[in-house]
Amino acid sequence: METTPNKTPAQEYIEKNYRFNFVVNTLDGASFWFGMSFISSAIILPLYVSHFTSNPILIGLIPFLGTAGVLIPQLFTANAIERTPIKKYVAAGFGFVLERVPLFLMAPFAFFLAASQPALALLAFFVLLAWHTFGAGLIIVAWQDMIAKIIPVERRGRFFGITNFIGNGTGILGALAVTYLIDQFTFPMGYVIAFGIAGAMIFISWIFLMQTREPAIPNNKPPISQMAYLRSLPEILRKDHNFMRYLLASSVYSLSGMSTGFLIVYAVKTWSLPDSEAVGFTIAMQVGLTLANLFFGFLADHKGHKLSLEICLLLNVLSIGLAVIAPSPLWFFPIFFIRGAISAGIMISGISIVYEFTGDENRPTYIGLANTLPGVVSAIAPLFGGWLAGALNYQTVFVVATLIGAAAWSLLRFTVREPRKAA
Questions:
Q1: What is the DSSP string of 206-223?
Q2: Residue 5: inside a domain, yes or no?
Q3: Is 220 contained in some domain?
Q4: Using CB atoms within 10 A as the burial measure, which of 21, 301, 303, 368 is most buried?
Q5: Domain count across the chain
Q6: Other C-beta atoms within 10 Å of 14: how many?
Q7: What three-state secondary structure class fits 231?
Q8: What stretches of 103-233 adopt beta strand conformation (E)?
Q9: Alpha helical stretches, state H, 72-155
Q10: What is the CATH classification number for the domain harbouring 156?
Q11: 32 neighbors 205 (Cβ within 8 angstroms)
Q12: Pairwise CA distance, residues 365 & 350, whole Å
């Protein structure tokens, strides 16, 4: 193959297949997020668990596993993934068993156990959720590195924005469907059908992911042992002060997540809402997700990801603060709309900004650091929130989370430089 001056064959291959990769990975992400709208960790899963227990610690396990499982393993896989020439083999190959199979199993376990053996059903649910989240954590660095490899930096914001816009837009239909299912079917059949649809869509998304065309690009860094690799990480933080300050702001923001899993439980308990009405908040959240994806995607491409994250952190303070003073359940429609917008912005810019702190060879390490270190805080936060809710009340959790969220915004706004300009 004849190469263009100053471009490697791998770079030419990426450019040649850019449109194809954009389409298949957009369809992967869109079908994945559509499926996930049927098992929302902010609304559907806490409601499902609330049928078995009212213990806030157990309910707090849902966001705990969602953050600890996905974020903490990443730093421990980054060393191996840096030396993997083709990342798709990890993201799609291992990812099928590690991340997606447990989602397929949620529906049959709920069908056979939820009514007859509730304690076993609850245990099975948490085992499957842990399997899924920790499996995702083991392969997600490879997926992120693959996306950074095949999507140019100036187009990543719109890629994530369009992908999530389609996924979350169809997710509005998913939210309407879940509301109907929970209202029309007695427990647990509404949840069984919702879990089954989620599993089917996750499988379809995997088929699209498998179509990705990714060239093999060896990493020229000399291989080192895992222990030597881990010992080298503090030196990275000592040298890159801007990235270290970003990690601090991200970790403080993660601590404010102590309130996330309790918003729906607080609304249900305070106003004695039926499941079908509570699930209606999913629609508001999906609308927020859908509209914000396009906004944050194009804003980030033109103004940088730091500005998008600053807006998200301000919205975080606003949404939790509204929960503190909410006089009626109607207030939770705008609250979950804002939570959806925050999720969109964090998904787009929280992932993409890390790519801009470093070059290609160190990218998996930076991804691992950016996710694992705040992930430790994210894992502890909902458990601390559950303890605080049990000892005092949910409103105290919201007040503390609001103050911590304001501190996170201040750190990001005043101490972190936009990495594009810093570079």
A1: HHHHTT---------SPP
A2: no
A3: no
A4: 368
A5: 1
A6: 20
A7: helix
A8: none
A9: 74-82, 88, 95, 101-113, 118-150
A10: 1.20.1250.20
A11: yes
A12: 15
